Automatic annotation (TrEMBL):
One Pfam assignment: Mu-transpos_C_2
Domain Integrase catalytic: 47-250
InterPro entries: Integrase_cat-core, IstA-like_C, RNaseH-like_sf, RNaseH_sf
Organism: Aliarcobacter butzleri
The protein's name: IS21 family transposase
UniProt record, GO biological process: DNA integration
Family per record: Belongs to the transposase IS21/IS408/IS1162 family.
Alphabetized GO MF terms: nucleic acid binding
């Protein structure tokens, strides 16, 4: 106990076990332990006051995940450049059964997709996942508490799991993961050192073959393989997987604008107008957009991929806007144009086809077609014929043609009948219907 108390002061005093041994010899000149014996007795004493707790894992309960410090190069065939594939390792606590996945990064999307592959490999999911404190999993882990990355928390909710990150500076918390990583480095990564890979698929195929051998190797301590232990212990006790595969989603905070839409990647999505000016959370994948207010789903949309596009649902509008929206769709504009003239129909079709998302020109179409109420249908149709022949499309240009009556020019009237025939082709295509 004296030795232990003295060594606790070593940061202040600089004392060492060797010095304490010298003092011990001076105090016992007639008989004393050698330094090796002295050190061994001290170690035994320390173990009695601070025993190492053996980690015992319940079957099907815990999955430990981490990345290998060693990477595998993937060669770009075109440039010859190499990318370092990151090696994700997932180890079940009770059986040690292991899954390995190569990806291009440790970023959130790759990290989560590797988890999804792991659960499919295990044909079930654990009740607790234990990650190291990388940013894709944990925002902060300190005395004030643990803050889990929202995308990772969503994954855990979907699979009904708890997330228990390892404690900083507590290596025993992640011993299982580190043992698994070490095993994978020795038996898989080292075995691949002379092979060349040109894609992640090639690498993962090679890993899969070696992983099968690794999991089927006999573990001397148990005289059984990890696969046997998995089938006996973990597999029967894993949670059943959801029917649908988890889809990775990203998260963004937004404020509903005055038009009851939120902006995402230069596109806009509607929400019920009652949420005007409210702060909402957008959860989105490559195919869907979900909008939440205080964790309640208030709107869903198909993901748009062209800048400037918008997705507006009629049920999100005030009643006055719903009535107006009945007048704004491609078919309604073409019907309106058909009542004005054949050149007008062609001009409307041309405008609708000029954008990837038709609603982007609705205001323009409404403004131009409304000119027929001021100048007359025949006059607008002739003005649009003039605009088409002279490649003029701005609303201001069409107004100018009408105001100056440029459509009455003699050379235009001479080709009037011929021009109509050219415009008549396929007037009612798919966009009309």
């Amino acid at each position: 106990n004296y030795l232990h108390n003295e060594l606790k002061k070593r940061k202040k005093t600089g004392i060492t076990l060797a010095l304490l041994h010298e003092e011990y010899k001076d105090s016992n000149p007639n008989g004393y332990y050698s330094y090796t014996q002295f050190r061994e007795h001290y170690k035994r004493y320390v173990n009695t006051i601070n025993p190492s707790m053996k980690q015992i894992y319940l079957v099907g309960e815990r999955l430990f995940v981490d990345y290998s410090g060693l990477t595998v190069p993937i060669i770009n065939k075109k440039t010859g450049e190499t990318n370092k594939a990151q090696i994700f390792v997932a180890v079940l606590g009770a059986s040690g059964y292991t899954f390995v996945d190569a990806s291009y990064s440790q970023q959130q999307k790759d990290f989560i997709n590797s988890h999804v592959k792991a659960y499919e490999f295990f044909q079930g999911c654990p009740r607790v996942v234990v990650p190291d404190n990388l940013k894709s999993a944990v925002i902060s882990n300190n005395k004030k508490g643990i803050v889990i990355n929202e995308s990772y928390a969503a994954l855990a909710r979907y699979y009904n799991m708890a997330v228990e990150p390892t404690r900083p500076y507590k290596p025993k918390d992640k011993a299982k993961a580190e043992q698994g990583v070490l095993g994978i480095q020795r038996w898989i990564i080292a075995s691949l050192r002379y092979q060349r890979f040109f894609s992640l698929d090639e690498l993962n195929d090679a890993i899969s073959i070696l992983l099968d051998k690794y999991n089927n190797k006999i573990v001397k301590r148990f005289n059984k393989s990890r696969s046997e232990l998995f089938n006996e212990l973990d597999k029967p006790n894993l949670q059943t997987l959801p029917k649908e595969r988890y889809v990775y989603k990203e998260y963004k905070e937004a404020t509903v604008n005055v038009g009851y839409h939120v902006s995402l990647d230069k596109c806009e999505y509607s929400v019920p107008f009652e949420y005007l000016s409210k702060k909402v959370q957008i959860r989105y994948s490559n195919s869907t957009v979900e909008i939440y207010y205080k964790n309640s789903l208030i709107a869903t949309h198909t993901k748009l991929h062209f800048a400037g596009s918008n997705s507006t649902k009629t049920e999100h509008m005030p009643k006055s806007h719903q009535y107006q929206s009945l007048k704004t769709n491609p078919g309604s504009f073409l019907n309106w144009a058909n009542n004005i003239g054949i050149n007008t129909v062609y001009w409307v079709k041309k405008e609708l086809k000029s954008v990837k998302h038709p609603p982007n020109v609705y205001n323009k179409l409404n403004a131009v077609l409304s000119l027929s109420k001021i100048h007359g249908k025949k006059e607008l149709d002739l003005a649009l014929q003039y605009a088409l022949q002279n490649s003029l499309s701005k609303t201001s240009s069409i107004k100018s043609i009408l105001d100056k009556k440029l459509y009455l020019q003699k050379e235009l009237s001479d080709i009037h009948s011929h021009q109509i025939i050219n415009y008549h082709e396929n007037l009612r295509g798919n966009i009309y219907h």
